[in-house]
Amino acid sequence: MARARRRRWGRAALxxxxxxxxxxxxxxxxxxxxxxxxxxxxxxxxxxxxxxxxAFDNAVRLGADLLEFDMQMTADDQLVISHDxxxxxxxxxxxxxxxxxxxxxxxxxxxxxxxFDCGARHRAIYPAQTSVPGxxxxxxxxxxxxxxxxxxQFYGETKMPGAGEGDVDPVAFxxxxxxxxxxxxxxxxxxxxxxxxxxIDAMHAIDPxxxxxxxxxxxxxxxxxxxxxxxxxxxxLLRLQDADAAEVRRLQAAGVMVFSDVVDDEAGWSRYLAxxxxxxxxxxxxxxxxxxxxxxxxxxx
Length: 301
Fold this sequence. Notes:
By secondary structure, the chain is α/β, with parallel strands linked by helices. The chain has one domain: Alpha-Beta Barrel (TIM Barrel), CATH 3.20.20. It is built from 12 helices and 9 strands. An 8-stranded parallel barrel has the order 1-2-4-5-6-7-8-9, surrounded by 6 helices. Strand 8 (257-262), helix 11 (266-275) and strand 9 form a beta-alpha-beta unit. Helix 7 packs across helix 8 (197-206). The chain is globular and about 55 Å long. The termini are far apart.
């Protein structure tokens, strides 16, 4: 029954926002969908504990179009949802009797990573975030099981370890991601984003049905459309200083979606809206939803 519901949602998505995202370079797709889509960054970290079920639950309730999340690999080659490559003691703490202390996730077994409570405290940059004590980091497996039947799409990032955090084979990492996406039949509803294009290229080789998106494309110092085609990407994140409205239209005409940088205020949303972006990244999906509703009101320009 659950898999049937997922298939029904997948077919329905193809008639709506899913149609915007499927199939590589199809010039008409971006123009056919209502824009912009709301991407709940880390589930909406300004509101609820980042990259946790309380945040993702809230984003679904608010009507976000895409749930964005980050993935790390543990010492026992398991995936866990976390932005930071090292367990961040600012907002992730463990019971003194647990036997675990913060450290690089790549150096810890999944069972130990899951002992941390990442919901009781928050980063200083999210002062209004609601605390939810007793909230662990989720695994992608549990994440997809929980939200496969929800009217959302998924936007996951492969995060490679930083200096001193260990090493990860990008192809092995990507295989794990592809496997969990396939397990839940979500190939048409998942987009892989990464700043490490080795994982982008690996995903295209492993399963070209799973779409990909480029982070930090400006660092390549090359033509954006050429870069997207080189890596078979269907979208890229571009800051305001990286591309003007004409460049956005050029990319969209070639079937490449343009996503905004993460922005949490009306001034920023207005600028990206005026540029014509396909999707807006935000830590505040509630505020963005209200802003877009007001912007689309009859008579408003």
